[in-house]
Amino acid sequence: MKRIFSGVQPSGNLTIGNYLGAIKQFVQLQHEAEALYCVVDLHALTVPQDPDELRKRSREIARIYLACGVDPQKATIFLQSHVKEHAELGWLLQCATYMGELSRMTQFKDKSSGKSAVHVGLFTYPVLMAADILLYDTTHVPVGEDQKQHIELTRDIAERFNHRYGEVFVIPEAEIQAFGARIMALDDPSKKMSKSAESEASRIAILEPVDVFRKKIMRAVTDTDNEIRFDPERKPGISNLLTIYSLFADEPVESLVERYAGQGYGTLKKDLVEVMSEKLGAIQRRYEQWNDEAELDRILARGAEKARSLAEQTLNRVKDAMGLVRFS
Ligand code: AMP
Ligand code: TRP
Q: What stretches of 44-148 adopt beta strand conformation (E)?
């Protein structure tokens, strides 16, 4: 049986990179299998957060899931901290993971480099992520390219655990799109678009009005030869815009390249703004409609209950395997 799990951190304004790389897939996959989509608030605590802001953002992410088309009748939407089994399995798995494995995580190296105060949680974060995934007997994890290494680690931990204790965990696979798994920064197409990057011009938020993002598209870094061609190596800027265009318009890149042949970057950029304004506009209107916090909280409470009932069973299996006493 196919089971989908994924999560997004409430640690900044979600960008079109999050949408195109991950959330758009969440919407498609909910029709194919049982899906759980989590707001990983415990993960956000690995770096300093303002408490009120974190509370606000956690609900906001859930609301964005809904606005993007995740259907609470089909998929389970919940907050990670509402299902205590995540933290509990996280601990148990920390006792089954090596320091060396975590030291190799590139995201940790990036996020900790140059910082004088780094919390332990930032180092052990991939173990919590492994717990998130393994708790639900997940078979497929839709994520962007940057999470690939974390999923590999999850598989390593699960395989080693099964080898030591018997078949306790299902081994998950990353579901990474062949195309669009890495949306690049608009002002520097050699870097990933990130919700936590310093430069505002590098990213576009899902909830950003067209008047704000138009300028960012029009000023997006491209090369000077004004030739529209898809070539991420040599023409990363225009290739990134073509990728974004293709995913928003649901039109293959080849068809875009053909259509814009001989036209300048300006025309393509202007049309891209139109397409994005339509697609993001629809998401933003739905976001406004999901303004009943009590209703949102009911969805999250129901989601947590459902998730808990699945998580409990896995955790019991793990405890039995590891030799913890359980009263029946
Ligand atoms: P995060 O913002 O780190 O919580 O990421 C949430 C999801 O969005 C993960 O699956 C990431 O891999 C994905 N994601 C984040 N940034 C990008 C990007 N620039 N391109 C594609 N996917 C992304
Ligand atoms: N680490 C992921 C990110 O930063 C978020 C995440 C946490 C996640 N737990 C997960 C993604 C489980 C997929 C499955 O993007």
A: 76-79, 140-142
